[in-house]
Each structure stands twice: as structure tokens, then as C-alpha cells.
Request: fold
Amino acid sequence: MKQTDHNGAADISTLARGDDIAARLEDLLTAPAATYPSFAADGRLYFLSDASGSAQVWELPADGGPARQRSHHADTVAWVAGSPLDGSALFGRDHAGDEHIQLYRLPAEGEASPLTASPGVIHGWGAIAPDGRRLACTANSRHPAHTDPVVVDIATGTATRVAEVQGPHELPAWHPDGGSLILSTAPETFESDLFSIDLSTGAATPLTPHAGKSRHMNPRWRKDGTGFWLLTDRGRDFLAVAFMAPGGTPTFLFTPEADVEKLEISPDQSRLAVVVNEGGYSRLTILEAATGAVEEVARHPAGVIVNLSWRKDGRAVAFDLARSTAPGTLWLHELGADTQMIFAASPAPAARDWSLISFPTFDGREMPGFLSLPAGEAPEGGWPVLVWVHGGPAMQALPNWRPDLQMVNSLGIAVLVPNVRGSTGYGRAYAELDDREKRPDSVQDLAAAHAWLSAQPRFDAKRIAIMGQSYGGWMVLSAVTTQPHLWAAGIDYYGIARWKTFFERTGPWRVGHRAAEYGDPVADAALLDELSPLLKADRIVCPMLVAQGLTDVRVPAYESEQIVDALRARSIPVEYVVIPDEGHGFFKRANRRRVYLAVAQFLQKHLLHTH
Reply:
């Protein structure tokens, strides 16, 4: 029988055999997540759940009956939105992770039907019109690099391009009269503007003219059309709630010293539901819409909220909540009452919690992060450690449900999840600390993390590995090339090996935005070569595991192939896991099982059995 500690986590001695690891992983993987709640007009709540093995559309009936699955595809559904007109919904999904999302209409009863059937086109979710009969989305059908605003008639599927724009855009809202759209541009990570697009003429009118770099996000029109609520950091370090007239100056309403990340207006427009990022943890807060005064702070477990949806009577907000110890569940905050969980498919397996930590780095700053320890006391010589680095780079590692990292804990390995400089959630100034030529400073933060771990007897300084995905994969490759003596092993999920080849092969709609973040592939070619791990691959001495989805349009497989070939040419131990039907991420349960088991076996071989 497996021994457990007070949290029920399996003791490492019981996980020495492959079948024990597989059983533990199966427990973690089959704990289904629920996310993306969205109310329809008749009161039913749509959401996504991966109970069937990939995220599909599910529904909670308005009468409180049992949840039922409403879509049945092999591929993952990306989002779902309940109709403001009736009990129907819209959703989007791609094919095998290729990100070419197609749109579907799901009636209140019966099977879904496609609204679009253009597999070579990427459709970006926008918003449903106030009358519930039209959908605004973006589509790159005119040119792969440009996502034009398109309006789709939901009844017929007829699509009309309303303007031609340059580069990628989003359509976050309709004007209340249904005659125009808000188009959002984001030429850089910390720069975004809003424009009004007239549907009859295609004319674009600036809504947020300003000097300098600022973000203007999540707009929600007042019903009389005189202005809109939004999130902006104009003149501030953090995103805050403001109201502004078209072309005017924001009037700030709610300005905590933390990013406000979500904003939804109640149906009667008397209240705002917002989510505040408190060191990576989400906090749902209800504000008075006119003044920004705090009416209620919801009491809910510490975790991460992805989506909010007001019930149509305006008396409750549904939201999803994932925790480091449990996958996403659905909650309902009734105004003036307690917050209640309304859907969890099954109890989560015993899991290790994450603790907030910080560690000093080379320039005296404190780097925030999370630490998760295995069950029981540290063994003689200390626990081995896996340092997990988030992607982005303008992202934040959050205390989310991670079956792979829980599996790593079950092996007897501690996990450190740092938010090195360049991470979001700690203000604009912190996020800009790794820009362009300062990018190696973030890699130095990883060396500081290693030093912090090494100074503690509970960790084994000789057995510290590093793992990351996408840009985090680039961080892994940069660490093992510039700090080869530090890392006992490296795990790279679809990381960038050379910037030149990345820019040549990434999706054309991404080139401009990525160039603003990393450097221009022509003008900054020398800098990008200096930052390319492939050109320093002869310095890698630790064993590596590389995993890649073959339909990835963001970081194509050539990046992984190059680093694997370079390591094999030097006889450095390297394992290459290829997933044919996934893109930028591993979302299907069967594919996660394969990748995570490969990670467990790799760490057993190169971290647990190495002293």
C-alpha cells in the first residue's frame, strides 16, 4: 500500500517503478478542469471541460440540473460564448493545434454547425453584437499577416469584411447601437490603442489618442454611447480601471498597486466585476461602476481566474478558479452572499501546494516566485530541484494546476517557479527590465535562483535541472549554454534555438509584434545571433529532453530539430519527443500522458540517480 503524508501525496519510495509513476500521473491527468464560463440569455451556463480528454463545450442548465457535454470533437475547443439573445452559444476550435480556428454555432438543443469552413484562415474571437444576431471576429483571409475585422451573420454564416488593416488586431466590443466596432491594436506588448470602426464605411476613428506608450484594454461601452470603461496603465506602472469619453483622457476609478486583469460590466451597468492580480493570485472584486468604489471583495480560495460572466439578472457573477492543488472549477458569487462552487467534475488527487517566495539576484533586486516541496522531510544531501521557467516573455507564472509539476513533486523533486525580470504582474517597469539587449539579465536571474537553492541544505546543489516552454524553452537553452556548469539536466518544450530561423518560419501575422519584443530580424541581426543558443550549442554538457508539436505555427519544429541535431552531433545525451497532432502546447490527455511520462523517466535517469 502507498504511504501518504497528511496531504495524501505518495511517498517517493513508492514511485520507483514505471507503473507507479504512470498510475500517479493518470490520477493527475484524469482530474478534469472546467473553465471559461459564459451565461446565455436563458440562464444556462456554458463552459469548457476536458473530462473527455480534450476541452469541449459543456452546459449547466438554468434549472440546476446536471451538467451535460455539448460538443464532441477530438481537437480542443478554444473558447465558448453564450448568446445574449437566446439559449444558444458560439465556440471556436482549430485542427490538431494548428491555430486556424473555425467558428461554430451551438443551438440550445441539438448539434453544432459550422459558421466558417476556411481551414487556411485564422478566425480570432471578438464579440457578439448587442442584438445577438451578428458576431465580430478577425480573419486573415486577405493576407496571412493581416487580421481584418469581419462581421458574421450568425443565422446564415455570411461573412463581411468591414475594413482592411495592417497587422494583427482584436475586436473586444461593439458600440451599443450595433453600427460600429472597437478595434484594438497592440504593436508592442506594452502599447495598445483602441479605434472605432464604422461598419458602413470602414472608417477608423481613434478612441484613445495619447503620447508615449500605454495600454488601453478590455473596453466596455456605456449604453448611451458617451464613453466606455476600460483597463489602462496610462501614466501608471499598473493596469487600473478607468472611464473615458471617445478621444478623451481616462478618469481613473480603481487604482490598486497591482494589475487589474479582467473587467466586465453588469447587465444594468451599475457594477463592474474585476479581477486583481495579487502576486499571481486572483481576487474577484465588485465595484460601483460610476465611482469605482469597492462594494464587495469575494471570498474564494487562492487561485487563478481566467474568465468572468454576469448572470443576466445582474445579481451574480460566474467565474472559473484553478489552484496549484486542484484543476479549474466553476464558482458563483451572489451579490451580498457567499461565493459557492457550482461545478467540479470530480475531486482532485492529493497535491502539493505552492508557496510564495523571493530570492535575491545579481543587481540587488528580489525576484518573486513559487516553491513546491515533495512530501516528508528532505533526504540526506537535500532534494533535487527542477526550476520551471514560464514562456512569453511578457507573461507570469501563476499558481495554477500543473499535473506535470505535481508529478515531479511525487518523484521526490522540489519545484521552483520563478518570475524573473520581464514577467508581467509586477508593473510595467519590472516587465521592461529584460528588453532587447538587456535580455541576458533575465538569464542571470536563473543563475541567482540556482545560487539561492544551493545555499539551502534542504536542496542538493549538484542536482538542479531546468525546464521551460516556448520562450521559456529559449531561457532553458540560454541557461545551459551560458551557465553549463550549473545545470544537471535541461527540458525544452518547443523553445527558440536561433532567432534568424525563428523569424523566417514563425506565422507571418506574428513577425511584427515579436520583432518589437525581441529585436528586428534585419536591423538587430547581430544582437539576435548573440542571443541564439544554437550558435553556442557546443557549450552544452548536460543531458537534454526536447518536446515538440509538429503543427506548431508559433515556434515551428525546425527550432527543436536544430538543437537536437547539434546535440547528437556532439554525442550529448538528448531525447526528442515529437507529437504529430499538437501545436504550441500539449492539450490532449493522451499527448500529455506521453510527454509527461517521458519527462518523469528523463528526470529519474538524470536527476534522481545522479549524485
Observations:
- The first helix runs from residue 18 to 29.
